[in-house]
Amino acid sequence: MEATIKDVAKHAGVSVATISRVLNNSSVVAPETAEKVNRAIKELNYKPNFLGRNLRKRETNVILALVPSTEQTYYSEILHGMQIEALNNGYDVFMSMTNSYGPHEERLLGMLRNRTVDAAVLMGTVLDDKTLNDLADQYCIALCCEPRQGSDILTVMIDNEKAAYDAVKYLASIGHKRIGMVSTTVRAPSSVEREEGYMRALEDCGLKFDERYLFRDSYDYTSGMKAAEYFNRMENKPTAVFAVSDLLAAGFIKKATEFGIKIGREFSVIGFDNISMAEMYTPSISTVEQPCFEIGKMVAKLVIENISGKNNSGRIFLDHRLIFRQSTERK
User: Fold this and answer.
1) Domains of the chain
2) Which of 194-198, 203-207, 276-280 has the lowest mean pLDDT?
3) Tell me: the pLDDT tens digits for 214-246?
4) Phi-psi region of 190 (alpha: psi -120 to 50; beta: other; left: phi over 0)
5) What percent of the chain clears pLDDT 70, i.e. is strictly above it?
6) Deepest in the core among 100, 137, 244, 294, taking most CB within 10 A?
C-alpha cells in the first residue's frame, strides 16, 4: 500500500501538521525538521495528494480554457499567449473543446463548482446570458474574442465593427464600387458586428447597401467556394469581397480562380484573423489581423488579477491591423 501522510509523520517523528507545513513550503518549520521530513518522504516514496490539498485550500492554480473547435487556428495563438502569462504567474492552462454543445460546456464548467480549476476563459460560448451572469456572480470567468450583449463579464477582444469598417473602406478607397461580403448564418456577436461595420463603411463611402451582396453560410472553407459561385452568377458581380474569416476568403479565392477571375488584379479579397494560411496561400490573402497572442496574454493577466480579488470587467479592446498582400491591388 502507498504511504500516507500519517505514515510519514510517524516515520519522521513529527506531527501531521508539520508534514503539511513542509509540503506547503512554510517558513515556520526549522530547516533541520524540514530536512528530516523530506528524508522520510523520500524513504517511504510518499506521493502527496495535491488535488485534495488544493480543494482544501480552495485554489488549484489552474485556468480552464474552452474553445468551440480546433478548426479556427487563431485559437492556438490565443492559448499560447494565455499559457505564457499563466506560467509567469504560477498558473497552468487546461484546454478543452466544446464543439459548441451547451450541455458539454456546462459540464466542463462544473470544474469551477467542484473547485478543480480557479477560473474559466470561454472563447465563443453558446450559453445564454442568464447562465453566464449566474456563473460570473459566483466564479471567476472571462470571455475571449466573442462578446455578449447582455452581460458585463470581462471580455478581451478587438473592435470587430471598426475592423470590418476599415477593411471595407480600404476596398472602396482603391476604386471598388460593388463590394460583397461573405458572412455566416451562425449569428455570433463578432460576425454581426463585422456586418455592421461593412454596412457603415458602405454608407460613409457613398455606396448603397444591397442585401444581394451579403452572402451567409457556415464558417468553413467550402462556404467560401459557395460564395464565389453565388456571386459569379450575378449580372452585376461585385469586384471585391470582404470575408469574416481567412478560411472563407481562401475558399472564395480557390473557386473564383477556377472561374478565371484574376484575384488581386481585377478582383480584391480581404479576409479576417491573419491565420498562417493567409500568408502561405497563392495568392497571399490580405486580412484583418487579430493580435491573438496578446489577447491571450491579456485575458490570462486580468483573470489572474480577478482570482486575487480584483474586479476587472467589461470589454477590453486591443488594436487590430490591416495587412495587405497579393489578394488586393490598387485599381
Assistant:
1) 5-48 (1.10.260.40), 61-158+292-318 (3.40.50.2300), 160-290 (3.40.50.2300)
2) 276-280
3) 999 988 899 999 999 999 999 999 999 999 999
4) alpha
5) 93
6) 244
Residues 318 and 298: beta-carbon distance below 8 Å: yes
CB crowding 236-252: b at 16 or more within 10 Å, else e: eebbbbbbbbbbbbbbb
User: Cell 497563392 identifies what position?
Assistant: 282
Q: What is the mean pLDDT of the chain?
A: 90
Parallel, antiparallel or unpaired: strands 321-323 and 286-289: antiparallel
pLDDT beyond 90 at 186: no
Can you name the residues that pair with 289 across neighbouring β-strands? 273, 321
Residue type, 100: S
- Residue 280 pLDDT class (50, 70, 90 cuts): very high
**Cα 165 from Cα 194, distance rounded (Å):** 8
